[in-house]
Amino acid sequence: MVFYAKMCNFAADLRKRMKEEAGGSYNHVLKYTSVFGGVQGLIILISLVRNKAMALLLGASGMGFNALLLSVQSFASQCTNLGISFGAVPKLSELYEQGQHEKMEYYVQVVRLWSCIAAMLGFLFCVTISPLLNTMTFTWGNHTLHYALLAVSVSMSAVCAGELVVLKSTRRLGVLARLQVYTALSSVLLSIPLFFLWGVSGIVPSIILMAACSLLTTIYYSFRCFPYRLRFSRQQLSDGFSIVRLGLSFVMAAAIGSASEMFIRSFLNVEGNLDAVGLYNTGYMLTITYAGMVFSSMETDFFPRLSAVSKDIPTTNLTVNRQMEVSLLLLSPMLVGMLMVLPVLVPMLFTQDFMPVVQMGQIAVIAMYFKVMTMPVAYITLARSRSLSYLLLESAYFMVLVASIVVGFNCWGIWGTGVAIVVAHVAEWLIVWGYAYWQYQYRCTWAIARYVAVQLTVGLLAFAVSLASDGLNYWIAEAALVLASTAYSLYILRQKTHLWQKLCQRFRI
Q1: Could you tell me what percent of the chain has a pLDDT over 70?
Q2: Mean pLDDT, range 41-60, rounded to an integer
Q3: Please, what is the Cα angle at 417 between 291 and 253, to 5 degrees?
């Protein structure tokens, strides 16, 4: 009986360890969230140089024009990339985990073939719709040629996306981190001289050159993993349909998202002017994009792990909840700190003309608390390959966002767009969690509810301070809230991980 009891305990411990490994330990989640978050932090510092140069050389209207062109490029890419960046990940990840190298090489060829097809579609699509885009987005001048030239960058981005899938599926996480840094550096080294020499006319060439640089560095690494041996065959074309079919709804959802962003910027341009587009884009970048540094590990590390356990409900819940906990604890102090320093950060990084962004950014920061609760849960739908459900959920979010932006801008100007972003993210959180609870039996832990209650309260207090006080009182109160949020996150992370012991070892305390 004693031997039987020991064997049962051993089996229980083994199952627990296997479940822990499948879900990803807190140390694993913290490590890769920190690694890619750190990379994103470096990228942000690099991009700040570029944004400062753009603000000085191009002004708010030039930044608005750049944002409009990038939104069109994103729209064309999302409409024609065939969903390869997501549709191919489950298949290639499965083959890599099983060690089927020959079959892996075959499906890499399939991905590359379909990436080339996507590149051709993107080029033709962008050239074809350029006259229509010119009519929709501008009330002055003829910018058809600008949109048509973006076809070159769209086609290169499609090929690059296919190669990135290969690196993600084979867990080349270090390479992916380096590629992100190289891309950011190239954006500075290539674009600033063009802006200095040609002003606004240098925007399109800079977009094309950045796409070319990203493509060249990506294929350098991917070809070393899997040499380029593209052989066209009907069988490869046929096998690629399963990848495209899986990614089709993702394409449609991404296209709806890009179309919504393009519509928002076009609406701001028509109802306001390019300055309004530039201000909105700057506020969006400072809050939504820069705060996304913590989310950067989700597609690269979290999504493959979640896909591997997506049919196991308890392990899925464990994986999602751990990612959410770590992301929330890491992001919350950053959000309060960002809210505090925006009045200084905006004129320092841009110019005094961008000061209306401050109030918009401070309210938009609140949306990030809801985003960090939504994203890990939203990935369950992708991991389960429920493409139609993903399409409907994403469509609902963008419908709310567009409607909120229209109402918010008409009522309160640029500050109203910040309110609209918060409304859209709250709505998305409610929709995604409700659907996951009903469809996937997702259950949030009481620990997450406690962390959210504490950190969101601190964030709301910081926002209230930004409205109610200024001068020395403002800085004292905001600094105290930053310290409180940071101390709470460190206290929880110390309990959950070996973070404190590693820090002591590093500094020999």
Answers
A1: 82
A2: 73
A3: 70
Q: Indicate the DSSP class of residue 139.
A: S
Distance CA 188, CA 49 (A): 7
Angstrom distance (rounded) from CA 345 to CA 284: 14
Return d(Cα 178, Cα 148) in angstroms, integer: 31
Instruction: Report the alpha-carbon distance of residue 291 to residue 375 in Å, rounded.
Output: 13
pLDDT over 60 at 12, yes or no: no
CA gap 286, 293 in Å, rounded: 11
Please determine, for residue 419, whether its predicted confidence score (pLDDT) is greater than 80.
yes
| Residue 61 contacts residue 278 (beta carbons within 8 Å) | yes
pLDDT higher than 70, residue 131: yes
* pLDDT per residue as tens digits for the range 134-173: 777 665 556 788 888 888 999 998 888 888 888 887 777 7
Q: Residue 416 — φ and ψ, nearest 5°?
A: -65, -30
Amino acid at 460: L
Tokens of 145: 């040629």
Tokens representing 136 are 């929709």
Instruction: Compute the distance between CA of residue 506 and CA of residue 51 in angstroms, rounded to an integer.
Output: 35
